UniProtKB/TrEMBL annotation:
Organism superkingdom: Eukaryota
MF annotations from Gene Ontology: ATP binding
Pfam families: Cpn60_TCP1 (PF00118)
Record's protein name: BBS12 protein
InterPro entries, alphabetized: BBS12, Cpn60/GroEL/TCP-1, GroEL-like_apical_dom_sf, GROEL-like_equatorial_sf, TCP-1-like_intermed_sf
GO biological process: chaperone-mediated protein complex assembly; photoreceptor cell maintenance
Coiled coil: none
Length: 714
């Protein structure tokens, strides 16, 4: 009877099963080496290539309530971070399966919700020790790229103390106290020939210190430096460590540099020997092998650096970056150009040739340029019919009169260029072309603001509001030219460039010979841009290559083992299992279920990146690292050491076209942790909703059976 109840209970949790089914479609989208998918539109038979969870969810027919909740969750993650959607989608499926397994073992819903939430919060606190300062990433990766020598031991060494924040030392102290391992005061002996640590150290802290890079920095003029320990050859006998910011309070000012929430400041950066302008190496670490987008972002950083030398302003703001997709050209034609680049029709291109090089009077419109458009607040309901709005105009001639009036306003004002945020009436567009007035629609809001600042134009909602003070001047338009200096025409589309003196706009021209790949290329570019933006906003990044997820897995299993020991001790004390509190008895099961989600995540990433041939091989390797981390005594130190050696699963470095050694991989902090929380919150919400539905059905069935029994008794 109990087995039948469990089967019915799990089968009725339809929402969790639907989440698991939907999330399984995005397994190939996890990790840096994604397997793209073709989405075919049945109505038009056109296909689009996608590699993001956002595009996948948008293309699915989500009719169920669970599917709608999943879509809203992914849309919220994309709206705030523009990254982390694939991680969110996968963890939703992994933890949905884990919760179903807990239900199979008769774990109460309340215990699942509370323990899983506490477990994830504990994991988020634990991985704080794997955060790296953005300044340290730039400095150390920059210095490591120019260090002399060709061997791997010389080119890939990165100082431990520069790659960690002060919290990791606290984590080491917690690991040491938890395992009750202490370091004797006389265990570190300094020899006459040099500063070498005693090889007999067995504590986790000693293992961390022993992996410090014993290399000399290119900027250091001293005779000998031990990176990570702060002990110099001239001060081996000093008792206090005065050169390490983690053992001394004198260097806390190193972390006091603050960057803006919405902008990246390049001013005040040191002279980097590799001319990366302070952000290139950070962008490489966040690119996850996306080399084409990395080259574009590198050009954007270089443009801003050049402008800083000329104008003194070196802020890189996302609102000043736009994209222009040009299908039909090879990907090698992708580039970054100043100004605003867009595509127009050949008829509009003839108007641009008519303009030549003369400056234009520009008009900005913050809405649609159509007769039916009304701004928000004056949009009339559809079920209201207007009997007569303009008494002096007949109904048959109202459209013609509107076109004539709008054209008269533009011509009388001397407007040459109109940038419209929304759509443009086609008939008005044709009349404007005939009168040498260039009207461009679907212009982003940030482009309107940028041209308004430098030309003096003020956006208007309707042409009837136009007056002389609303117009701007100093803009010009030209045909966009490729790298070879020739203008490009792509059938019905002609790329043009709109420029004005002092405008702070950069357009990333994204080209591809495959039309179905346009959306994919644009998504990849913006993902990298926002990763860099969030990294600078947070001021820190995570170790990549699965290091953070592995530490979450190790920590979850440790919590599960501790809970199991507490439950066993309670059973032995009271000599009866039912006296043990339910939260303690079920805590180990739920934490193991939470850990299974991390295991699935790591194994799928390893298979997608060809680090493992099968799920079995991946799990075997994960178990091997778990045993080594447990034997090390400090999982945090073990993760750090493996990351410096090339990644936890040899996926911590991304090979580049011009760098054999590769670049360390990093991940965003806030975007990743919020993806975890959103995934678990969605799973627990669907779990509780299903439970309420099941409870209501069972109550109705019980009432029906009770009433039927009373009727039979009567």
């Amino acid at each position: 009877l109990a087995m039948a109840f469990r089967a019915v209970n799990s089968r009725r949790h339809i929402g969790l099963q639907q989440l698991s089914s939907l999330a399984s479609a995005g397994r190939a989208l996890l990790g840096p080496m994604k397997s793209c998918k073709f989405v075919v539109d049945e109505s038009t038979n056109q296909s689009v290539l996608i590699c993001s969870a956002l595009r996948l969810i948008e293309s699915l027919d989500l009719t169920s309530a669970a599917g709608q909740l999943l879509n809203e969750t992914i849309q919220a993650q994309n709206k705030e971070f523009k990254t982390g959607m694939s991680t969110l989608l996968f963890l939703v499926g992994a933890w949905s399966n884990a919760v179903l397994e807990c239900l199979q073992q008769n774990v109460p819903v309340s215990a699942i919700v509370s323990v899983m939430s506490e477990g994830l919060n504990s994991c988020c606190e634990k991985v704080q020790c794997l955060q790296i300062s953005v300044c340290d990433v730039n400095k150390e990766l920059c210095s490591s790229s120019v260090r002399p020598g060709s061997s791997e031991s010389k080119t890939s060494q990165i100082a431990c103390d520069s790659f960690l924040n002060p919290q990791i030392f606290q984590c080491f102290q917690k690991d040491i106290s938890a395992s009750e391992e202490f370091v004797p005061r006389n265990s570190c002996s300094h020899q006459e020939a040099g500063c070498n640590f005693n090889e007999g150290l067995a504590s986790p802290l000693a293992s961390f210190v022993s992996i410090a890079s014993l290399v000399k920095s290119v900027h250091d003029k001293s005779t000998s430096v031990v990176s990570g320990s702060g002990v110099t050859a001239s001060s081996c006998k000093q008792k206090n460590l005065t050169h390490s910011r983690y053992f001394s309070a004198l260097a806390q000012n190193h972390f006091s540099s603050q960057l803006g929430n919405s902008q990246v400041s390049l001013s005040g950066q040191p002279a980097y020997p590799c001319e990366c302008y302070g952000l290139e190496h950070l962008a490489m670490a966040l690119s996850h092998g996306n080399q084409p987008s990395m080259e574009l972002l590198k050009s954007i950083i270089a443009y801003r650096h050049e402008r800083a030398e000329c104008t003194g302003s070196s802020q890189l703001i996302i609102a000043e970056i736009v994209t222009c997709c040009l299908p039909g050209l090879p990907e090698s034609c992708s580039c970054v150009c100043p100004g605003f680049i867009t595509s127009v029709s050949p008829e509009q291109a003839r108007v641009i040739k008519y303009f030549g090089d003369k400056p234009l009077r520009i008009l900005l419109m913050d809405g649609d340029l159509t007769e039916q458009y009304r701004h928000l607040g004056f949009t009339k309901p559809r079920n209201v019919r207007t009997v007569l709005e303009k008494p002096r105009l007949q109904e048959g001639r109202s459209g013609h009169s509107w076109l004539s009036n709008m054209l008269d306003i533009l011509i009388s004002s001397g407007v040459n260029l109109v940038l419209v945020k929304g759509s443009v009436c086609e008939n008005l567009m044709e009349r404007c072309i005939a009168n040498n007035v260039l009207v461009i629609g679907s212009v982003p809001q940030n482009v309107l603001c940028a041209f308004g600042e430098v030309t003096g134009a003020q956006p208007v909602t309707y042409l009837a509001q136009l007056n002389a003070s609303c117009l701007g001047s100093g803009a010009w338009v030209e045909l966009w030219k490729a790298s070879d200096g020739r203008a490009v025409e792509l059938g019905d589309l002609v790329p043009v460039r709109i420029e004005a003196r002092g405008v702070r706009l950069l357009t990333a021209v994204l080209t591809t010979a495959v039309a179905s790949k346009v959306q994919l290329v644009e998504d990849q570019f913006w993902t990298l841009v926002y990763r860099l933006h969030h990294a600078v906003t947070d001021g820190k990044v995570f170790l990549g290559g699965g290091a953070v997820e592995f530490l979450c897995l190790s920590h979850s299993q440790m919590l599960a083992e501790q809970s199991l020991k507490l439950a066993n001790n309670a059973v032995q004390e009271f000599h009866s299992p039912w006296l043990v509190a339910s939260s303690t008895a079920y805590k180990s099961i739920v934490l193991q279920a939470l850990a299974s989600g991390w295991t699935q995540y790591l194994s799928v990433v390893m298979c997608n990146t060809s680090k493992a041939a099968s799920q079995f091989e991946a799990r075997t390797l994960i178990d091997h690292h778990l045993r080594k981390a447990a034997g090390c005594g400090s999982p945090s130190a073990y993760v750090l050491k493996e990351f410096r050696r090339g990644g936890m699963f040899r996926g911590g470095s991304v090979p580049l076209a011009d760098d054999r050694e590769g670049v360390k991989v990093c991940d965003n902090v806030t975007a990743k942790t919020e993806a975890w929380r959103r995934a678990l919150d969605l799973v627990l919400l669907v779990l509780q909703t299903d439970a309420e539905i099941i409870t209501g059905l069972q109550r109705n069935q019980l009432l029906k059976s009770h009433s039927s029994n009373e009727f039979m008794f009567l």
